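Risk register update: the risk of archive-format incompatibility is retired. Evidence:
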Amino acid sequence: MFKTRSKPAGVYSSVFYVAANLALFFCFLQAVNQLGFTYLETLHRVTVNTVIDATVFSREADFFATLILLATLLLLQLPAVHASSRSDGFRIYAPVLLTMLSLIFFLLGEARIVFILILFSTLTHVKRYLSLWGFANTTVLLTIILSLASLARWLSYPFLTTPFYMDASWVPSKVDRAVFYFLNNTLAFWLVTMLILGWLLSLVFTFLRRIRLVKTGRGRIGLLVQDVQEDGLHRLTQGVEKSRLLKTLLDWRLALPLSIIVLLFLNYYNYFPSVNPEGKPVSVDILYTYVPRLERFESYGLTFTGVEYLFTEWHRRPFVMLSLFLLKFLTGFSSVDTVKLSLFLAGVLHVASTFLAFRLVTGDRMLSTASVYFATFSVTTVVGLFAGYLGMWVSASFQLLSIAFLTRAVGDGCFRMVVPAVLFSALALLSHPWSWLLFSLAAFTLPVALFFLGRLGVCRRLGRRQFLIMAVFLLFQLVPEVLALVLFNPPSLVKLVSDALKWGGFSFANLFLYETNVNRTLNIYVGGFSSNWLIYALSVVGAVSLLKYDNHFLTFILAALLVSTPVFFPCNHGPQTRIIYFLPLQAASTIGFFEALRLAKGRISPAACFSAIILMLANYAFRSVANLI
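Archived output:
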């Protein structure tokens, strides 16, 4: 078995993969403990700075478990060395020597060095005798087991309420939390920065992909440049191995009802008597924004004075307030319970709009169904439940539908599709004008971007009819704002934005405080729940590939990143959080996931990879929500 460089499958390979993964994992935890890594975490709504405790059992028990795993790894490597050809030279001894060296360093207490040595030892051994992708698939499988065990504890917490991480039932959740916060605090800042600059990265990578040949000679450099446009976004799922498990998970008839159940559980998670005996609201804006405004509107009723109040009060969210008024009338709930229910409905709207947007744009069931999961466990959902960002939550959903219909209108050359695009844009404006303004800026940037990208050969050039369709949309989406100004004379969008920038400390001096501001945005503001390294990593992959597919929906995301950049960098944590909330990360991360699968070229199980990612995101969502009370 070891005399050739073939990639055997069998008991030995499975045992080695598991042993190597466990050894690496325990060494990683030991290294994190040795670093004395500190992080910010919100526990029961209080953000505290603490030293991470990356232990499974106890420091002593973990030490002996790691020692046993390293010895086991060494024993598993010896048969391969014994069976190898002597003509291979010193290379056959490298994995064994590295493992033996790691044992020495481990006994000397240098866990950081041990982790690096074991990583090189494992990769060297696996590359020579086994399969790197087989090892990666085992890593994914073990991640699923850990994440599933952790999620089971969070799901059972309202029914088995014990202090967090204080008994054996919390061990998987404790380990998952340690890994999450370590990766979050080391990667999230850089990933968010890359995401905001994703439009630039996408341009750079697009042009690098177009270069097919470089010639040098006589002091000149010649480039052979070709178009690399894909046929469409639906190609993302082509070539993905469609196993029975993946087909089941990505069946919309399962995904949508499951999403509704999960959102209902997330929304009322903290209203179980065992968790919240007093039943006090857990979302910030419930009591401080929506309940008092709803009660004041009720005092006016559906009169001209009442409608005028909805348009002239500082927040200007008439559609949301009218919806709350109607919902309260239909259910008979109190104002507080009505707003609680509305957060759940906003989550359902967010998921439904993401699903419908992908179906409209691509017609691909697998892609649109996968987006349901990414929307359910998104930053939008978690931060929305913490802060009660009801208006922005609803507005973001309508914005996504608006641009999806506009994409179809332009792609099909159909003016009728402009009508729902304008309607949803108007609803977005009437739900949250600040985010609508960012959306409008991106929409106005879209035809300009498409014009220049078409001239550069990155995407198809638009015809006159298509530009006319965009012009009609951009003109008519301003009508609701003009009518509101004429009829009610509300605070203008310019004043609202000006006030928001003042509140956000807009200043070029913030460019020198960028790292400080972003770290506050990610670790402290809104409970630090804006931070999720996995969502950002997938979104960055998605952002880089925005121009790879000839699709106006993706170009809009690029335009949204472009218009967000000049605001994100010179502002503090307030606007930064809102910009992150405005960006369609659930769409970008869905695209990023399938793009990553394409890069893997079928060498890693799509079903296992998808399951691992969704389980990790589910842990993030339930862990965060559990700390809202």
